[in-house]
Specification:
By secondary structure, the chain is mainly α. The protein has 14 helices and four strands.
Length: 367
Amino acid sequence: MQRKSVNFANRGSAFIDELRARVEAYFRENNLSRYGNAEVIAGAAFMFALYLGPYILMVSGLVSSPLMMLGCWVVMGFGMAGVGMVLMHDANHGSFSKNRKVNKWLGKSLYLLGGFPPNWRRQHNSLHHGYTNIDGLDEDIQPPGILRISPHRKLLKIHRFQFIYAWLLYGLMTLSWITIKDFKQLNRYQKDGVQLTQKNSYKRLMADLIGTKLLYYAIFLVVPILVLPIPWYVTLLFFVAMHVVCGIILGTVFQAAHVIPDTKFPLPDAQGNIEINWAEHQLSATSDFAPRNRLLSWLIGGLNFQVEHHLFPYISHVHYRNLAPLVRETARKHHLAYHVQPTFGAALQAHLKMLKKLGKNGSRSYE
């Protein structure tokens, strides 16, 4: 069922009011900016090197062994995911830099990953953040095909095996971006009357989409096919391998924070109303994981602190580690759930358990 919007309750705002005051006090008392710092710049530079460095080594001829080339493409997959999580994500939320132009241009790094920023901001910033885990609005829980990650989607017999094949489907995520998904999204948003940008018309957006896709393919597929000393179909296979690595990383990181047994998938009533306010909803539909793993947090752009990110998407991820105790304490003070898995492995196990559950059960008990 496709929805246009829902209305969250206005009552019960004491939690978010107190939390915002505490967060503002944290930045004021520590004389900190809510934007990124040297840590996020270092992380972005590292991920760009991880993504583009192996490419340069291959096309310059410094790497010529097919096995080493495969290694380069796999490393590029890690770098591709890293650029998305560490740099592009913050920039498109406007939190990488206090300079809007810097955020705008760094947000365009998504073009280097084969994506389309206007679509991404609509799907992620507006729909996923605005209506997390709400079926018919949050596109992150309504993938096409044989994957069921919303309890309100039709249950098929094949879903009983999705805990096995879901991970492979995650690997197809960015391959979908670079082929059909962006075109289908843009057409759907146009049909729904969604204005993705203030300046560009649908025709201009479509022209940009086609042009940037062609440029992406030219750089990351055509050039390697022409210059690498291996058959073209091997290069194509390695290119696909890069995207599979990237897709699995992105899919597991994001789904492990929202699709686990602890999180809720509420449905609005007939009038489109949700009985709790937006902030409480974010707490109920989101989970942190591995809060003490500094290395993991650095590598995935702080996305293990999804609760903090969903409550404060305009704050750079480098601050979430220090904000998490404030969120946890305030939530508990107001008798609200605060979901967290102790490790990334525990989060993956929880997601696996949820995939099994969604493959067998209907929509009861998820609201």
